[in-house]
Structure formats: C-alpha cells, structure tokens
Design a protein that fits this description.
Blueprint (H helix, E strand, L loop, with lengths): L7 E2 L2 E2 L3 H21 L4 H13 L6 H16 L20 H17 L1 H36 L8 H34 L1
Antiparallel strand pairs: 1-2
Length: about 190
C-alpha cells in the first residue's frame, strides 16, 4: 500500500484526512506554545501544562508528544514529577487494534488510493437511482392520465364530449320551456276565445 504524504504529520501516518488536519493544527499550536513557554517560570509552565490537560487541547499523538516534551521541560525546570498530572489519552488502543487497522487501511485504499474503482461504483449507483426515478415518474404520468380520463371536468381528453353534453342539456331545457310556453298559449286561447 502506497503511503500518501498528505496523511503524514510529525512522523505519524494518519488514517484519514480529518485526523491529519487536526494533527497539523496541533503541530502549529505546539510551536506557538513552545515560543511562549520558553521564557516562563516553572510554576507558569506547570499552569499551562495543567490547563492544556483540563481543556483537552491535544487529541492526536502529535499533540501528546508536545505535552510529553512540555512535561519534561517542567521537570527539568525544577518541578517535582509527582506534582505533575499524567498525560491522559482518551482513546482505547488495545481492544480493537486489528479491526481499526483493517478499517483504516480499507478506508484509505477506497477513498484515496484507488479512485477509479470508487468512480465505477458511483456510476452504478447513479444508474440504479436514475432507473428507479424514471420508473416512478412513468407511474406518476400514468396515474395523471387515469385521473384526467375519470374526471367530470372538461379537459383536453374529454372536452368534445363535455361540450356536446352541455349543448344537449341546453337543448332539452329549451325544448321543455318551449313546450311549457305552448301549453300556456293554448290555455290563454281557450280562456280568451
């Protein structure tokens, strides 16, 4: 497996770009803090050391390495080692070591080393999704036609029938009124005549 230089920070090979970026940030913070602590008294350096532990400033081996360096520097400045807190590592190293290593190797290979294989998988996924979407759209179109055909409202599919039915109903109504008028006229002629 080829190692990628953008995953290496401070001599450590990280399993993801996010971890490498975090380590890169911690490396910058360590350099900045080293410049500031070089002129401090031992008690001030111990306070800085304790504050970094309390605030969990460092979460990668790069940061822990700086904490170890600062711890050594504080001890050399005259602070008793028993007065210093140990460096906490908030991670479990042993329980799933092989699983984590395999997972990281697979992740790196899949994400960063063999992009052509990943591209093929994404094209297959895209095709599958587009076929499903097209089938769904065809079903929707068929349903819309069925609703349109069954509808009582005039539309492009049944407008001719709707207009003929409307004229027929008007004609029936007019014929009924005309018959009613003729009956009234006859009744008037019989009364008047």
């Amino acid at each position: 497996m080829a190692e990628r230089s953008d995953l290496i920070v401070g001599g450590y090979f990280f399993g993801s770009f996010d971890d490498a970026k975090l380590a890169q940030k911690e490396l910058k913070n360590a350099k900045y803090l080293d410049e500031r602590t070089s002129a401090m008294r031992p008690s001030q350096m111990k306070s800085v050391y304790d504050k970094m532990i309390d605030e969990k400033v460092f979460a990668t081996p790069v940061g822990w390495e700086y904490l170890k360096y600062l711890r050594t520097k504080v001890i050399e400045a005259g602070v008793d080692e028993n007065d210093l807190r140990p460096i906490p590592l908030y991670i479990n190293f042993g329980a799933q070591k092989e699983d984590l290593l395999d997972k990281n190797r697979d992740h790196i290979a899949r994400e960063h080393i063999r992009p052509s294989r990943r591209k093929k998988a994404s094209i297959k996924d895209f095709l599958r999704i587009s076929i499903i979407a097209n089938v769904f759209l065809v079903v929707l179109v068929v349903l819309m036609f069925l609703i349109t055909i069954k509808s009582d409202n005039p539309n492009i599919l049944n407008y001719k029938e709707a207009i003929i039915n409307e004229y027929a109903s008007w004609e029936e109504e007019l014929n009924a009124r005309e018959a009613d008028l003729k009956e009234r006229e006859k009744a008037l002629e019989d009364i008047g005549g």
